[in-house]
């Protein structure tokens, strides 16, 4: 997986840029749109904690554990979220798309659909993945519905899989898309984006 390296992915709606420290202030503004850190079933940095969150992701990137991106809306150049390639298993190869959040005003606008189209296209067609995984909290119904709309299939639920910052236990819902399913998923995402454009 020599292509598992920082890369800029550009679409019609958004551009995914490799995360760097210079994005911190823009991310703090984006996360304030909807006060996303207040959702109890997610782990989204607060504006004040954004610098530490960026540093943590960059440290994990240097360790080869993840490739984090910011999501920039092409229409106005605003950063409207973040997403990440993580938990890569280079022997298969497979990876997870996770640590994703989108500013409230950018949700259901094509931003997430095109972000996933760009990430999945790169994962399957450049990196050569055989499967791409998505995980979310059992109680994050909005995220579960969004993943299902992508065309990913639910693999199962990992019970008491993690502990949230407030101490509660998390049941993690695991979804994935395989390389054989990718053409149909790609077609569905392109159709959704065409409807947003119309």
UniProtKB/TrEMBL annotation:
Annotated GO MF terms? acyltransferase activity, transferring groups other than amino-acyl groups
Q: Which keywords appear in this protein's UniProt record, sorted alphabetically? A: Transferase
Q: Please, which domain of life does this record's source organism belong to? A: Bacteria
| Pfam families, per database record | Acetyltransf_3
N-acetyltransferase domain sequence ranges? 14-153
Per the record, the coiled-coil ranges are none
Checking InterPro entries in the record gives: Acyl_CoA_acyltransferase, GNAT_dom
Q: Which PANTHER family match?
A: BLL6696 PROTEIN, N-ACETYLTRANSFERASE DOMAIN-CONTAINING PROTEIN
Identify this protein by name: Protein N-acetyltransferase, RimJ/RimL family
């Amino acid at each position: 997986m020599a292509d598992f390296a920082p890369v800029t992915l550009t679409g019609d709606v958004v551009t995914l840029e490799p995360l760097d420290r210079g994005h911190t202030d823009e991310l703090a503004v984006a996360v304030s749109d909807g006060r996303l850190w207040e959702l109890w079933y997610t782990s989204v940095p607060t504006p004040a904690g954004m610098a530490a969150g960026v540093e943590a992701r960059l440290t994990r990137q240097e360790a080869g554990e993840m490739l984090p991106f910011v999501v920039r809306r092409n229409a106005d150049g605003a950063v409207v979220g973040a997403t990440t390639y993580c938990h890569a298993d280079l022997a298969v190869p497979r990876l997870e798309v996770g640590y994703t959040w989108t500013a409230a005003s950018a949700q259901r606008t094509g931003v997430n659909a095109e972000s996933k189209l760009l990430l999945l296209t790169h994962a399957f067609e450049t990196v050569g993945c055989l499967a791409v995984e998505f995980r979310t909290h059992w109680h994050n119904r909005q995220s579960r519905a969004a993943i299902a709309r992508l065309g990913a299939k639910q693999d199962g639920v990992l019970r008491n899989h993690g502990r949230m910052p407030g101490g509660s236990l998390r049941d993690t819902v695991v979804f994935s898309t395989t390389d054989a399913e990718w053409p149909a998923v790609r077609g569905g995402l392109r159709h959704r984006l065409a409807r947003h454009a119309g």
